[in-house]
Design brief:
The chain has 13 helices and 2 strands. With 338 residues, it is mostly helical. Strands 1-2 form a two-stranded antiparallel sheet.
Length: 338
Amino acid sequence: MKKILGFVIAILFLTSCNNEDSEMLAIDNPEIDLKIPADFPELNAFVSQNKPTQYGVELGEKLFSDKRFSADNTISCSSCHIQENAFTDQKTQAVGIEGRIGLRNTPSIQNLAFMKFYNWDGSKLQLETQPLVPIITHEEMDSSILEVIGKIKDDASYKDLFRKTFGDENITPDRIYKSIAQFEYTLISANSKYDKVKRKETSFSESELKGYQIFQQKCASCHAGELFTDKSFRNIGFPLNTDTNEAGRARVTGVSSDFMSFRVPTLRNIEYTAPYGSFGQFSTLKSVLDYFDDGVLDADNLDPIFKENGKKMPLTEEEKINLIAFMKTLSDTEFVKK
């Protein structure tokens, strides 16, 4: 009887300790307030399952910048996603280990907590599953998550951060992915001149205001809302990537009507993210607008906006200047500071 009673007491003691540990972990690793603007869209469903925490974000940022994620220890996530370029690299196509050229242009990383799809073709629906793509891709890091864990498992600084984040020092693929996602969820850009104008803290210049009016007439249907993207996939007749592996959204869906359709990019911080297009077809914003004005490539699935306007978006030179002036008001100088 005494043994049974002792066993029960021990179980209760351990349960109490576990509860205390959980509470202590919650206190020691508080959630981070994302400070989301009132007019921003709802967070995607996965953020609530992996809420950013103090140490989770610190761990994620450290992992994001670790070159040991690549096979030859030369490339990290931050090698291509450079903060001063709104987390792009100013290259036409991403460059991985040994100078290998990737299929596509590096997309910017901002406001990901509000997105429904990731990558140019929307191949990932959850940010926590996205990091595996560059890790295993031959043209990028050409490694594996188990190889990465093997490199960092004895690192004392990682052991400390995993313990502070998750309660113990166990390094797992799931914890790595969650931590990187937590860091990326905090990358919210919402303090551009445009945002300050909306908050009535400043005003547009005459050129910016004219550009905004043109934008509302000719661009806002695709670059919609406060994220300046409607999150859809469209073929807008850009010059084609001749790589035989490229098919745009059709690589994911296998549907011919998705051929060479790509996720509509956000225009926030567009000033910093040249070159533009899925494989950097255009070096400047002016060259993009010139292309729209001259006429885009025809296709069976060309977006109706261009179909209905003779494969063009007619723009005068003055309109182009004003549009670019407005787009530059979407630059968030604080966001791109190191």
